[in-house]
Design brief:
Strand order of the largest sheet: 1-5-6-10-9-8-7
Largest sheet: 7 strands, mixed
Order of helices and strands: HHHHHEEHEEHEEHEEEHEH
Strand content: 15-25%
CATH class of the largest domain: Alpha Beta
Helix content: 25-40%
CATH topology of the largest domain: BirA Bifunctional Protein, domain 2
Number of domains: 2
Radius of gyration: 28 Å
CATH superfamily of the largest domain: Bira Bifunctional Protein, Domain 2
Mean pLDDT: 84
């Protein structure tokens, strides 16, 4: 049952009172069914869910009332809320006692332990992406989180003095040779060096940068890297796999765009964006009021990169992409701030 409150123009309190009567009548009917099914949690969410609960919807309308209307309507909806919660709690308790009193239940029988907790949003996202890419013939590869400049920068066509190697981005352990990896592209450099093409590989892992924390950036984060090297690979292959992957994660209605963007390790380079899931493109704090969220960079693997890794660029071509995996998880699970992923607070 849906109750339209915002469209009420006159005599609001009287109409709200009518809605209260209808809600109570509907609840009485549904609690009867629930006494048999035992689905008390589902019934509670229907009426008291923070996003779509029927009673919650009424409560959200109280601030729109005049002071006189608040004094008259507020106590009534509070009374209804308390009454329905008490009924659900009492009926749930009675149902559980009745179940335990069943003479056919053997309380000495050992039940398997219930699973507790849940996977982290980033882990869920990684597993779903692995499923997608394995289906498309990719292998999962791993590499060290501490690496050297050769794999981190030089083989990726980032020469000495490039801004990405500056201390403001990179966290050096033994400057300037050893550092915490700033991107999973270092694993790509290792794979291109160690494996004979053709290859289809994805990598998921932690990265570290000297960043100022914000809703969409952190000094510790995850990236998802992928690359393909074979004969005849072109940029259309890259765009197709990127668009299919994003729609696999977020649904076919997801709006995707590609922008030309410079990255030293690829040429040409593409930036892949999705329309912000929170503001639907209107602009908000999460998307920095741009309406779009950058998921990562991609492009055709640079001629020099292939050559420095020992692959003949005259015979083979390839594409590579790297995405902020945490940003994918934020958009997928509607989490507005990356700091909530690793802040130590458990959100139910």
């Amino acid at each position: 049952m849906q109750f339209c409150l915002k469209c009420l123009k006159i005599n609001q309190v009287a109409l709200y009172q009518s809605d209260i009567v209808k809600i109570k009548k509907q609840f009485d009917s549904e609690i009867e069914e629930t006494r048999t099914s035992g689905q008390f949690d589902e019934l509670y969410l229907k009426y008291f869910s923070k996003t779509s609960g029927i009673i919650t919807g009424l409560m959200k309308e109280i601030p729109t009332l005049s002071e006189d209307e608040k004094r008259e309507f507020g106590p009534k909806i509070n009374a209804l809320q308390n009454e329905l919660k008490d009924i659900i709690e009492q009926e749930k308790s009675a149902y559980e006692k009745k179940q335990l009193a069943d003479p056919l239940i053997d309380l000495s029988y050992f039940l398997p332990p219930k699973s507790t907790g849940m996977l982290h949003p980033t882990t869920i996202t990684i597993r779903e992406m692995h499923d997608f890419f394995r289906y498309h013939g990719f292998s999962v590869y791993e590499g060290p989180e501490i690496d050297n400049e050769e794999n981190m920068f030089r083989k990726l066509n980032l020469p000495e003095g490039h801004p990405a190697t500056d201390l403001q981005d990179s966290l050096f352990i033994n400057e300037p040779k050893v550092l915490l990896r700033t991107h999973t592209s270092s694993v790509e450099a290792r794979a291109l060096t160690d494996i004979e093409p053709p290859m289809r590989i994805v990598v998921a892992g932690k990265c570290y940068r000297n960043e100022t924390p914000s809703p969409s950036n952190a000094s510790f984060f995850h990236q998802y890297q992928g690359f393909v090297v074979d004969k005849g690979i072109n940029i259309q292959n890259l765009k197709a796999i990127m668009e299919d992957m994003i729609k696999f994660l977020f649904g076919n209605d997801t709006v995707v765009r590609f922008r030309y963007k410079y990255y030293p390790e690829v040429s040409p380079g593409l930036g892949t964006d999705i329309q912000c899931k929170f503001c639907k493109g209107k602009g908000c704090a999460f998307c920095k009021f741009r309406g779009w969220v950058e998921m990562g960079g991609s492009g055709m693997i640079h001629y020099n990169t292939l050559k420095m890794c020992g692959i003949d660029p005259e015979e083979y071509t390839g594409f590579a992409f790297g995405m902020g995996l945490d940003r994918l998880a934020l958009s997928k699970f509607s989490i507005p701030d990356i700091r909530k992923l690793y802040g130590g607070i458990v959100y139910k």
